[in-house]
Each structure stands twice: as C-alpha cells, then as structure tokens.
Amino acid sequence: MASHDDDLSGFREEVRQWLEQNCPPSARNVPQNADNSFWGGRNAVHGNEDRKLWFERMAQRGWTVPSWPQRYGGGGLDASQARILAEEMRRIDAVNPLQSLGIMMLGPALLEFGSEEQKLEHLPKIARGEIRWAQGYSEPGAGSDLASLQTRAEDCGDHFLVNGQKIWTTYGHKCDMIFTLVRTDPQAPKHQGISFLLIDMADPGVEARPIRQLSGNENFSETFFTDVRVPKANLVGVINRGWDVAKYLLTFERTTMGSSGSGAQGEGLDQAALRLFGREGLAREPGLRQEIAEVLIGTWSARIAGQRLFDQGKAGAISPFSPSVLKLLATELDTRRTRAMMALGGFDHLDPGGSAAYKWLDAPTNCIAGGSNEIQLNILSKRALGLPEA
Amino acid sequence: MALVLTQDEVMLVDAAKGLLSREAPLGMFRALRDSGDPLAFDPALHRRLAASGFVAPNVAEADGGLGLGASAAGLIMEQAGHVLAAAPLLSAAMAAGLIGKTASKAQKDTLLPSLITGETTIAAALDETARHEPSVLATKATRNGEGWLLSGSKTAVIDGFGASAWLISAEFEGTIALFLVEQAAAGLEVDKVDAVDSRNYAKLSLKGTPAMRLGDGDAGPAITAALDLGRALLAAELLGICDEAFDRTVAYLKERRQFDRVIGSFQALQHRAARLYARLDLARGVVLAALRAIDADDPEATWLASLSKSVMTKLSRDLLVEAVQMHGGIGVTDAFDIGLFVKRGRAAGELLGDDYFHTERLARDYWRL
After folding, report:
1. CB contact, 8 Å: B368 with chain A?
2. Which of A149, B16, B113, B266 has its CA 20 to 30 A from that of B186?
3. B-interface mutation test, from A285, A300, A372, most B Cβ less than 10 A away
C-alpha cells in the first residue's frame, strides 16, 4: 500500500514539474466554457499560439485523453494517476487542452464496442484533436422517446444508404463526423432495429443547419441526411444492437452532466453574493439569502457525491443509478444557481450579452438533454425501485 | 478517508443489523411505548448492545475503548434508526466525546468503563432553550471550597431521565466550563418530559447543586465538538429512519391495488418516489462525509456536521410526510408502524438543531452571507 502511495506522490511531483515547464501562462486562468475551449477538428481554431503549443505538448504525452491506452493515443494512466493529473491541472488553473464529444462519448463507446480496426482508425484522431465528433441521436419525432427514431439506413451490399433527419446535434454545423443511431430493421420492435453508425459530415447529402437558442448561442444543429452512402466498416458493434451502445453512452453523458453542474468551476455563489450584493443587501432580503444558502448546500452535497462516486469507482462499487441521480439533481441545482445569480445582479444581469443571462438561459438545456429529467425519474422508478409499468 | 465503507465497517453494519433485528425489533419499541415505562428504554437491551461494542464505540483505545470513532457510532445509529431501537446510544457517544476531550485521566478511569459496558448512562445537558441555541448559557458555576455549585436550568436533555449522571455546561467567570452532576446531588430536580417520539427526555433544575468540574480550561471547543458529533449521529439515525420508511413505502406501492392495478404503476407516485430515492442517495454521501471528517479532525468537520443535519432534517420531513400520504388512510392510524418513524423523525430532526438552524449557521458563520 505504502509503495503504491509513494509511487503516486512521485508521479504527482513529476506531473507538477512537467506542467510548470510546459503550460504557458496564457493557457492558465482562462475561464473554462464552451466558447473558449479548443474543440479540434479539420477546421480547428486555437485561442492563441501559446494555447496551440499547450495542446500539442499535452497531445504528445497522450494527456488529452489521460486514461486511454497508449496504443490509441492515450496516456495509459490508471484512475488515481488521472485524478492526480486533473488535480494538478486545476491547481495551476490550466485550461483543458482539448474538449470534445469524441473524448467524452464516442471514445468510451469504441473502447467498449468497437473493432480493433475502428479503435486504431478513430481513437488517435480524437486524441490528437484531428476530428471533431457530433452526436446524432434525437429526431424531431424522437426526443424523450428516443427509440422511436426513424432515420433509415438501408443495406445496399457494400454500403448503407442513409435518409432522415436528426436534431439537437451538439455543434453539428462545426463538426467533421457524427455518430448516429439509425433504423436498420423497420420491422423489428423499436429497440431492436437500431444500429450505431459513424458518418462523415463532409460526405454528399449531409447538411447541418444551426439552431439559435434562448441564450442567443448556436450550440446545436438540425442535421439532414439525403441518400448518404456510408461504408459498412462504419457500423459499430452488432447490427440492430445499437441500442446497447446508446444506453452505454448515455450513462457517460449523464455522468458528465451530473458533474459539470456541480458549480466547482469559477467563482462560488457565496463569493458572488458578497461581491454583488454584500451582507447588508442580503440581510435586507432574507428570502434571497435563504435561497443562496440552499443552493450552496446542494452544491456542497453534489461535490461530496462526486467524491463518493470516485471512491466507489476505485472500490468497484458504483451504483448503476448514480448517473441518473446526479444528472437529475445537478442540472436542477444549476437552474437554481443561475436564477440566484440573475437575482443578485438585478437589472444589470438582464444584459443579454452578460454571462449571468447566458448561463441562466442555457441552464434548462441540460434538464432536457441527455434524457430529460423526467426520463431519469422513469429510469429510477422502474429500474432502481422496481415499480411496474402502467 | 474514502466515502465507501471499509470491510470492517461492512462487518460492523451486518453485526449491528443482526443483533438489532433479533433483540430490538420494531415491536419491542411499540411495546415499550405502550407500557408507559418512564425510563423509555430497556436497560437489559442497552447492556446487550454494549456487550457487542455498540455503546460509545468512539471512546479512544488509550482510554480503554474500541477507538472506532464517529464513523462506527454513526453506522450503528443508522441501523438503530431502522428498528427505532430505544437505547441511550446517542447520549453515550456524546458523553464519551465530552469526557474524552475534557476529563483528567482519573476522571476518565472513573467514568468511562461503566459507560462502555452500559451499566451507567450519562446524559449531556447543554441546551437551555426550546429551540436549539447553544450560545445561550445562563447556568452559573460558583466555587465552594474545593468543589463547585451549579445554578440554572437545562432542557431537551437527551436520555436525561433516570441517568446515572449529567454533563452540564455552565459559565464561570466568563468562560464556559463543563461539570458532572451525580444522581443524588442536592438541589437537583429532574423532570421527565414527554415527547411525540416516546423517548427519554428530561428537564433539569439546579439550585446550588454540587458538581465536579471536568478539566480546567475553556470547555467551549469540546462542547461544540460534542454537539457536532451528536448532530452527525442524529443525521445517521435519520438516514436509517428514512431508508426504512422509504423501503416500506415502496413495498406498499407494489402491493396496494386501486383501479384494478397496483398504485405503484401510477407515474404521479413513481416520480415522487424516484425524487426521494435520488435525495436519499445524495444524503448518504453527506452523512458519511461528516462522520469521516469528525474522525479525521478535519477543520471542516463542524460545518459538515451542520450540512449533514440540515440535509437529513429537511429530507426526513419531506420523505416522512410522503410515506404517510402514499400509505393512504392506514398511514394515519396508530396501529400501523409508519407513524412511529414520523414521530421519531420529527424529534431527531429537532434535537441539536433542525435544518433552519443549521442552514443559518452555515450561511452566517461559514459562507459569511
């Protein structure tokens, strides 16, 4: 035990030194949000030269995907080492070198379900930020009832012919490739005729149109497929068993949403309350003060839940329902936090260009995406509690 | 320490669960309540729990105890919550904490061995107000030759009726001090107080009552630490109460039929139950984090104790009202057990500060809002 701990403290020391030497000052203390993250891709744009250098150095070590195997471009770190790297990056407030759905979602799916050829083809490109991936799940008629999706992939011998429409494709108009759920057997019961297919968005017949949200941002697109020819090699896993891949992936999405909503990044609500309103202001408005205290209690509880999830992971004792629990609670907490921030700034926070309004208008998205919170409640009542169908 | 149970802790939980379900099933508490026994617990049961090491497991090894800390005490309290075991476990753990942090070696040697075996019970008498507010301290200590005399009154003394001795906070020349008052002390009046949970509470009246001082410095930090321990232990008991009431409610949802189907198939009830499940899952981590912080002497421990008591009091209030509602008419009868959890939940939530108190404590003293 002691020797493993010694190894880890040696590793921490090594990481710390390397980061000190290799993380340029302008890649530190950068507010981490979707807009100033580096997403990679064929048309990648770096924030500046320093951050480009930072990304390249991290990619070189495989630390854009620290826990993936080295043969796929990863860092080959175990869970404790990866945590140390994350902690040391947070300590110097280093910007995340590469943000991507390829890292968060497709990678884990390929590692679990992909063929060796698919792993070697796609994972290193994700690790090096060469391909930016989009997710094609929802359709206009298939939101919460995702399995009723209608986009068709017809078997044409050496390729699939894809026709249909996806919606809520995250940054679809900026992505290079898309992993999709498509119907390959229209006769089968709805969960059993779906396959998981990778499609190049530069191929003829693919068109992505951005959707403007309440916040004014365009984080999603509608994506249209018209007679798109997709090579057979792009099928991940077993044909008509794509729902297994989708379910597996959705737990990653929920876990990510459950932890990102914990308010760990940036100024805390308590500091913001004191800066914006002060103790005197809060004393005059006990209702607002109480709301802030309750949100802070929720935030702290969620942070403990994140720590517990990590400890359970190390002990091999994760509840399969944790992603749903955390997604539900963290996203609701996030809406409360952003509303409290709006209230604290009063009239000033009505500014549509300000970050308070932006976050407030964006917060409901996460309560809907990744399986709406009502879907999470269905999952918990049916699977965790064993309550019967109506 | 990690927020998962160690193998030893898993064994402890199994042992506590086994012993409590054999020796103190829920029916025993009901029978005790109906008997009107003024002590409101069975001393024989308490000694059997003690024989298994479940009484004051937080006494340090150096003081002759098991040295298992707040974590073990909390896990036992959680199991006691499942069966509403009426034994003075909370007061014993708090007394152990107070004595451990303040008393001299000789005092420890006198007090701790019989506390651990369950032969004596010692109750902490710290509250003077109906709503918990430990900053209020009107009880005064005066010198009396080599000894001390106390004057004042205490309320909400947990397990205080019929106790062998009481640990009493009092002010002496501007500092907070801790004293031990024995059963037969002159000028001491102990009144039993009835509460909805049919457990043992007392009010104390002290009129020039002879007392022994524990230690000689400022007892304020030791008292705060004991309150924090008590709060985290009550949070753990509430977790057990809530788990039990919730499991019983979900079982009822699967069994009760209306409109030709089980009522658990209705989404209106499913989603309410699922929300409680999610909150219970979150609270489980919070309670364990508070217990672990106390054992690690973490400077955040006092705030985590408030966090755990705030979260569990609020959750228990919401959950137990749902437990009654989902049981329908049978839920409001005395004959049905769910109401026993409601009553104990209310009292355990109230003791040592409810969610309003602890949310305010965090807001004012931790976040400085």
Report:
1. yes
2. B113
3. A300
| Segments forming the whole domain that contains residue B199 | 123-218
* Angle, CA A303 vertex, CA A298 and CA A308 arms, to 5°: 120
For tokens 């898993």, name the residue: B10
Residues B171, B237 share a domain: no
**b/e sequence B288-322, b meaning 16+ C-beta within 10 Å:** bbbbbbbbeeeeebbbbbbbbbbbbbbbbbebbeb
- CB spacing of A384 vs B270 below 8 angstroms: no
Q: Looking at the partner chain, which of A300, A308, A387 has a beta carbon nearest the beta carbon of B270?
A: A387
Tens digits of residue pLDDT in B184-211: 999 999 999 999 999 999 999 999 999 9
Do residue B255 and residue B149 come from a single domain? no
A253 is catalytic: yes
Based on the fold, state whether residues B208 and B304 are members of the same structural domain. Answer: no
In this predicted model, what pLDDT tens digit does every residue of B252-265 receive, in sequence order? 999 999 999 999 99
Q: What is the pTM of this model?
A: 0.90
| Banded pLDDT at A266 (limits 50, 70, 90) | low
Are B108 and B177 contained in the same domain?
Answer: no
Q: From the list A315, A325, A387, which residue is nearest B265 (CB)?
A: A387
**Count of domains forming chain B:** 3
Q: Are residues B47 and B63 in the same domain?
A: yes
User: Same domain, yes or no, for B185 and B239?
Assistant: no
Domain boundary residue, one of B83, B103, B120: B120
Per-residue pLDDT, averaged over A67-75, amounts to 96
